[in-house]
Each structure stands twice: as structure tokens, then as C-alpha cells.
Design a protein that fits this description.
Elements (H helix, E strand, L loop, with lengths): L11 H16 L10 E3 L11 H10 L9 E3 L9 E6 L12 H12 L3 E6 L1 H12 L7 H7 L5
Parallel strand pairs: 3-4
Antiparallel strand pairs: 1-2, 2-3
Length: about 150
């Protein structure tokens, strides 16, 4: 009987790390890519220490929110104010509970403020979404900033 080879599972961490390294390699040389506003949100991190609930409560008091997407890019492009990617391991695709209720609430909230928010299954899907986002024109918000900032007398 022939044994079937089962490829090792690629973790969500590995997919996300591959996404970041791919995006930085592709876009770091672009003048309209601002790497400082592409970042990961450590929502899925384990809280260590003697009392993880105390630490969780401390973070909650500081504004921690459950369900925030894994990756955020805060540059407005095209019709969107920002990009939020909820990264999922490829083997989660098609699973009913792949996106939690808290994650879906965050995705819907981002969409309500004209952001693009999507759950991506694997690095390739996330890079494809990022590529589509970057093909949209950069929206310079300087005129809005001038309207908000008080004028000097």
C-alpha cells in the first residue's frame, strides 16, 4: 500500500511573516509606500506571567480590543481610508468558524469608515489583496489636515 504524503501545516504566524517579508521586498523601493504605517497587531499573543487576567485587564483599560485584524496599513488609497487584513492559515479556508464573531465585528467596523477589510487565507491571498490596494491611487490628505489644524495668527 502506498503511503500518502501530507505536507506540514503552515501556521498563521508563518503566513503572516511571509506576507510582511514579501510586501517589504516588493514595495520598499516605491515612493508611495510608507512602511511605517504597515504593522501587525499582537491580539493573538499569549499573556504570560503569574496573573494573565490582570495583564489582560490592564491592556483592556489601555484600549485593547478583541477581534482587531492582524495587519493594518494606514495609507488611504483609492476609495479606501485604510487596509485591514485578518490573516488565517490556509487550512482554515472553508471552515465555519475561521473568522470569529469579534473579528467580523472589527471587519464590519473598518468597512463602515470606508476601509478595506478582508480575511485572507494564506500569504498569497493577502499579497494579492495588498497588490490590488496598492494599484489604487494614493490619496494625499494634506488639504484635509490644513482644514483641521488651527491657523496661526
Amino acid at each position: 500500500m502506498e503511503e500518502k504524503y501530507k505536507a506540514p501545516r503552515v501556521s498563521e504566524h508563518s503566513e503572516q511573516a511571509n506576507f510582511i517579508s514579501t510586501v517589504l521586498a516588493k514595495y520598499s523601493h516605491h515612493d508611495d509606500f510608507i512602511k511605517e504605517v504597515l504593522f501587525a497587531v499582537p491580539n493573538g499573543s499569549w499573556l504570560a506571567g503569574r496573573n494573565p487576567w490582570a495583564l489582560f485587564n490592564k491592556f483592556a483599560a489601555e484600549g485593547f480590543r478583541k477581534g482587531v485584524s492582524d495587519l493594518i496599513y494606514l495609507q488611504a488609497r483609492g476609495p479606501w481610508s485604510c487596509l485591514a487584513i485578518e490573516m488565517k492559515a490556509l487550512d482554515r479556508k472553508g471552515k465555519k468558524d475561521a473568522v470569529s464573531e469579534d473579528q467580523q465585528i472589527f471587519i464590519d467596523a473598518v468597512k463602515s469608515v470606508d476601509g478595506l477589510a478582508v480575511a485572507c487565507f494564506g500569504c498569497d491571498e493577502a499579497v494579492n489583496i495588498f497588490d490590488q490596494y496598492m494599484r489604487r491611487p494614493f490619496i494625499h490628505r494634506a488639504k484635509l489636515i490644513n482644514l483641521i489644524q488651527p491657523k496661526e495668527s
